[in-house]
Amino acid sequence: MDSFTISPFIADLPKVELHIHIEGTLQPALRWKLAQRNQVPLRWRDQEYNTFEELVESYHVTYNHRPEQGGRKDVPTFLEAYFAGCEVLLEEDDFYELAMEYLERCQDMNVRYVEPFFDIQAHTRRGVKAEDVLNGYARAQKDGVRKFGVHSNWIFCFLRDEPVEDGEKAYETARPWARIKGGKGLFHAVGLASNAYERPPSLFKRAFERARKDGLHTTTHCDFGQKDTHEHIRQAIFDLGVERIDHGLDVLDRDELIEGLLEKDIGLTLCPHAYHRRTATEVLFPKLRELLDEGVKFCINSDDPVYMHNVWIDGNMEKMMQYCKLTREEMVGLVRNSIDMSWAEDRVKKFIHAELDSIDVGIY
Ligand code: HPA
Ligand code: ZN
């Protein structure tokens, strides 16, 4: 599942990524380096990773279990692994290096523009200063364009399984780094991340209204197969009025949800490999095909590639193309969706559309 060959067509395709958590790009080598530099032990509960090899081995788990729903408890859940990874991130430079490593990889994968999610609370609750997180990313945002030609506008995430008021406070702290009048322009949107179990989007209605008043865009995770998934999607579309939904694949079960998406022109940021971890090929990919046929707008993304078998946006696109038997033209169409769904500046959008115009989608 993890060693998917990337075809030259997919490798060369100019790309846009709208659903990736920056902390989910922390690779074992950088995690190891930062652990040494910051003197942080590497572990999950009482399991310690004392050598680099042991650390690398720990990534081979398939995080497809949900303990709240009766899944196994002897290995970390995906989110536990992700937050354990965060423990090595302490100083501004750590956040900068994390982001620069990702943006450099974007250049290698021909990702031209990206809207990374970032957490504040995952770090401040460990004693890290919010300004160190924000300044590290803001510096990388600028250097990423200069050094790698990769443009980025970032998305602040509320941790939905923490008290709403804590998220609201985190937003106020981060606000001077937002794309608002007099702000530093790091982030231009807010989203909802972490564990959705019994944490419906409507809990964050006031927080989202505040961000919207600031002129920011809004999106929210509605995880595939999560408890109450249809109600979460309904709230996202009709109560919160978000502009995009992250995942949201379960819309297929309810005509009224599909109609809501089409009517309000809400697109889904999908991450096929994330679902493939817990869904059979012959179940998942026909669903994705069905979404296309229903005319639902969506784009292809990677979510947390390091914790998902190192499958990045190119691997996700490759899977989509092969398992859904999509033509080159259809793949280019999915990239155009990601441009249209993005909140990039018009000149960035035009530039990537123009690059796509010159791609040969003919006989092959
Ligand atoms: N889902 C929800 N929250 C997250 C994720 C995810 O995949 N990654 C980081 N925070
Ligand atoms: Zn996500």
From TrEMBL:
<dbReference type="GO" id="GO:0005829">
    <property type="term" value="C:cytosol"/>
</dbReference>
<dbReference type="InterPro" id="IPR001365">
    <property type="entry name" value="A_deaminase_dom"/>
</dbReference>
<protein>
    <recommendedName>
        <fullName>Adenosine deaminase domain-containing protein</fullName>
    </recommendedName>
</protein>
<dbReference type="Pfam" id="PF00962">
    <property type="entry name" value="A_deaminase"/>
</dbReference>
<dbReference type="GO" id="GO:0043103">
    <property type="term" value="P:hypoxanthine salvage"/>
</dbReference>
<dbReference type="InterPro" id="IPR032466">
    <property type="entry name" value="Metal_Hydrolase"/>
</dbReference>
<feature type="domain" description="Adenosine deaminase">
    <location>
        <begin position="14"/>
        <end position="357"/>
    </location>
</feature>
<dbReference type="GO" id="GO:0046872">
    <property type="term" value="F:metal ion binding"/>
</dbReference>
<keyword id="KW-0378">Hydrolase</keyword>
<keyword id="KW-0479">Metal-binding</keyword>
<dbReference type="GO" id="GO:0000034">
    <property type="term" value="F:adenine deaminase activity"/>
</dbReference>
<dbReference type="GO" id="GO:0006146">
    <property type="term" value="P:adenine catabolic process"/>
</dbReference>
<dbReference type="InterPro" id="IPR006330">
    <property type="entry name" value="Ado/ade_deaminase"/>
</dbReference>
